[in-house]
Each structure stands twice: as C-alpha cells, then as structure tokens.
Amino acid sequence: MWEVLLDAFLDTLKLSWVLLIFYILIELVEQKIASKMHSKLKSKYSVAVGSCFGIVPQCGFSVLASDLYSKRQITVGALLAVFIATSDEALPILFSSLNQKGVWLKLLMLIGAKLILALIAGYAVDLIIHNVQKKKVKAEQVAEENSHSHGGQADEHEHKHEHHHEEEQSTLTADVFENADEGHAHDHDHDHEHEHEEDEEEVDIHKGCCGHHIDDEKESDVKKYLVHPLLHTLKILAYIFIINFIMGTLIYFIGAERLAEFMSKSGVLQPIIVTLVGLIPNCASSVIITELFLSNTISFGSCLGGLIVNAGLGIAYLLKTNKNFKQNLAIIGGLFAFALVIAITLHFII
User: Cβ–Cβ contacts within 10 Å for residue 188, how many?
Assistant: First the structure.
C-alpha cells in the first residue's frame, strides 16, 4: 500500500508546476475578459459568445451566465451554450498531461465537440422558444379578434374553453423558458425596481473558483496573480491525489485488466453513471471524470456527457438566484437529457 501511496503522490507532483502556470495564465485572461463577456453575452450573438467564452476553463463564467439569466438579460440558449461549453478543470488537467500518448487528440476532440454542441443546442433552444412564443401571441390575437367579432362574454368564454388545452401547453412552455427578448418593457421596469440590488450583486458575478473577487481593485497583483492560482492549484492537486490513490488501490487489489474489463462491459450504465457524477456542482467531479478518461477507464462519450452537465458552479448559482423552480428544473433536466443522449450515442460509436 505504501507503493500505491507513493505512486499517487509522484504522479500528482508531476502535474503541479504545469497546473500552476496554467492557472496563472487563466487568471490573467480572466481579469481581461470578464467584463467584456458581461457586455457581449447581452448582444444578439450571445449564443456564439457564450459557446466561445465557455471553453475558457473557469467556472466563474458559468456563474456570470446564471446571474445574467436570472436577471433576464440573456436567453435560455445563451445560458445553455455556456453550460455545455464549460469543462471546469478538465482542460487544465488535459493540458498538464500532454506528454502522455494520445492526449492531444483527446483534448482537441473534447474542445471541438463541446463548442459544436454548445452552438447547436443554444441556437436550437432559442429557435424553439421563439416559435412557441410566436404561436402564443398569434393565438392570443386570434382569440381577441374572435371575441370582438362574436361580441358578448358568452361567446368569448366558449372560445377560450375550446382553445384551453392548446393555449395551456403553449403558455407552460413559454413560462418555463422565459426569454430575455420577451416582455422588454416589463424587464425594464423590473431592472429599474431592483437597480440598487443588482449593483450590489454585480461584484458576486465576478467571483473566481476559490471565492475571490476577480475585479477587486484592493487586491495586490501578487495576491491576484500568484496566491489565488497557487491556492487553486493546491486544491485541484489534492483532488487528483485522492483520485490517483483510489484508482491505484483498486488496481492493486483488483488488477488493471479486470478493472478495465468491468468498465468496458458495463454497457449503458457507464455513460449514465458518469453523467450523473457530472451533475455534482463541484470541481472535484470534473477532476474525477477527466482522470478516468486519461486512464482509459471510461469512454470519450461518457467523459463528454459528464462534462456537458458539469457547468462548474453555474448550476448551483442558478438555483440560488433564479427563483422560478419550473425554469430551473426544465433547464437542468434538459441539459442532463441532452448530455445523456450524447454520452450514450458516442459511447457505442467511438
């Protein structure tokens, strides 16, 4: 067992300096683009912007997207694009393991797949919601015209009764996925009423993974660009060490071949379990998934599914800030279903 412990420590130590350099670079990038992302996400190119920014390995961006959505400043599609593109700690770990055979290909496949899927899902969801809302508005206009032409409350009541089921379904869909473009005047009033509250929350959306404020002017450059990346690196290294030790222990008692055989024969259970693990709102889940992928214990499809739903702290922040339970349930449920379909499909193809 001491051998297992020593191997886990040495394997983790090899990644330390690469991860530290990577997180210092990410901190520099994040400081520069956090405010730009805030404005770009609210543009008409929000889905494309969200997909591209989401690739940057920082869960602070998914938190920002959740905050903007809860204030109705971005669409559901833009929010999902950020969530799907986000890989949390997966990319730093893959970058730090580029010396291993085949990791370059795994890295490029993961980035490419997440970017494409984020764009497709984001635009598709916004298009569906837009069409549902158009039908809802059209149905309301027809109902209003018919009520005027029939003239009388009895006819109006009868017409509403005839179209009750259809309008109820349309209303439910629109209510669940309330779009930032709908009800602009209402949102403007809402923003005005909560202007002071949003000013206070503005700082929160710029929090980094370890809880520090990205744009805190009071912090020194040393603390900002060295201390925080160092703390983050130590945190991730601790997770990696624990996972390496657990995997080493399993191999020690079970054997590498038997463990690989078990995972390969687990069939559809593997992508389901990995995708469920990805739902855990903590960077430890993305570390577990990535380490299992690097050791060829899980397939690319399973890894992709787990990382699609692993939006860093974005989902946790969405549940905290957005008080509409139906919306949250629909977003998280839809994201999980999408990830699971992708995971199962690619698990049996690749």
Answer: 10
Band the pLDDT of 26: cuts 50, 70, 90.
Answer: confident
Three-state DSSP class for 207? Answer: strand
Nearest to 335, CA basis, from 252, 275, 268, 265: 275
pLDDT digits (tens, 9 = 90+) for 245-294: 887 887 777 776 777 677 777 888 999 999 999 988 777 888 899 988 99
Whether 135 and 170 have beta carbons less than 8 Å apart is answered as yes
Q: What are phi and psi of 207, to 5 degrees?
A: -80, 140
Angle between helices 76-85 and 300-309 (to 10 degrees): 130
The tokens of 293 are what?
């992928």
Burial-class residue 310 by CB neighbours within 10 Å (0-12, 13-18, 19+): buried
Q: Are 55 and 253 in contact (CB under 8 A)?
A: no
- pTM of the full structure: 0.75
Residue with tokens 């956090």: 34
DSSP state of 213: B
